[in-house]
Design brief:
Blueprint (H helix, E strand, L loop, with lengths): L5 H24 L2 H27 L14 H30 L8 H29 L4 H7 L3 H29 L4 H30 L5 H12 L4 E6 L2 E5 L2 E10 L5 H18 L3 E8 L3 H4 L3 H6 L1
Parallel strand pairs: 3-4
Antiparallel strand pairs: 1-3, 2-3
């Protein structure tokens, strides 16, 4: 089921609006922390742009340079986004937190902080709800973490985790400002920035791990592969499928190789015709299989014998 781009556009518009709000507040209050937060939101906006770029580039048709297509462009840019979340998002938050702990400043009037945090919470909350609805549509009845691990479309879960981290970060930032002002203790502000950095780092690690797995190549899910093999083995010319390596090149793009034990009474012409027939049947039933390679395998009766008996025969 192809993913919708709506969560990405929602997150992009929300982050741009939040960045503008933070920069306006920074110009009024002169707060360096607010400037850093504005930069953080701009980086989040860049993340959505990179995901959209990956989606568009992944749609390029195969050519002589990339005979298997450009589907993995999306996986590459999703991995870059996960690194940016850690390097810039987490890094800026850690830096601001340590700076505030080294040079604490008491918050005299948190009004603008509350206004900015409130607007950001509303916008990020709306973006999070949009991303969550799309993710739930994609995962169906699967458990949440199982769906994340099995998902082949990073554009959905990257935006979801980024929005969730932003909302958690805003809650922590509010608590830091509120406790710092009410208790007249500036160290809460710095501690809140460090906690936000830890949240972003944790999210980055999870996203990097999942994106890395997709980038390196993952095979078709066991249940789906079982369905494909059942279709193949229904063909009258097929004895059984011996091997079936596969790899995802994109969320809706699979390369599949089948090593098939054809019936012994078939001629070369019969096998060639069967290969064409099986390819058409599989690709019609499973459009996700963009490229299907079929080759005749060894006699299954030989494969079932010990190695010395095979050599002797």
């Amino acid at each position: 089921m192809p993913a919708s781009k709506t969560p990405i556009y929602s997150a992009l518009l929300a982050n741009i609006a939040i960045a503008v709000t933070k920069f306006v507040a920074a110009s009024i209050t002169g707060s360096s922390a607010m400037i850093s937060e504005g930069i953080h939101s701009l980086v989040d906006s860049l993340n959505e742009v990179l995901l959209l770029l990956g989606i568009e580039r992944s749609k390029k048709p195969a050519d002589d340079r990339r005979p298997f297509g450009y589907g993995r462009e999306l996986y590459f840019w999703a991995f870059i986004v996960s690194i940016l979340i850690f390097g810039v998002g987490g890094g800026v938050s850690f830096y601001e937190g340590i700076t505030h702990l080294q040079h604490p400043e008491i918050i005299k009037d948190p009004k603008w902080n509350y206004i900015v945090l409130g607007i950001a919470f509303l916008l990020d909350g709306f973006s999070l709800i949009t991303a969550l609805k799309e993710f739930n549509r994609q995962r169906g009845s699967q458990p949440f973490w199982a769906a994340v691990k099995r998902s082949k479309d990073p554009s959905t879960f990257v935006v979801l985790f980024e929005d969730a981290a932003d909302v958690l970060g805003l809650i922590v930032a509010f608590l830091g400002v509120f406790l710092g002002h009410e208790l007249n203790n500036p160290y809460f502000d710095g501690a809140a920035s460090i906690v936000i950095g830890l949240i972003l780092t944790a999210v980055s690690v999870v996203l990097a791990r999942e994106s890395r797995g997709l980038l390196m190549g993952e095979s078709v899910e066991a249940e789906k592969l079982k369905q494909i093999l059942a279709v193949v083995e229904k063909d009258k010319s097929v004895g059984r499928v011996l091997r079936s390596p596969s790899i995802y090149m994109g969320p809706e793009e699979v390369i599949l190789m089948l090593v098939v034990d054809f019936n012994n009474d078939l001629s070369t012409t019969d096998i060639n015709q069967a290969i064409i027939r099986i390819r058409e049947t599989v690709q019609q039933a499973f459009p996700i299989v963009k490229q299907l390679f079929i080759e005749p395998g060894e006699d299954s009766s030989l494969l079932s014998k010990p190695q010395n008996e095979v050599l002797a025969s």
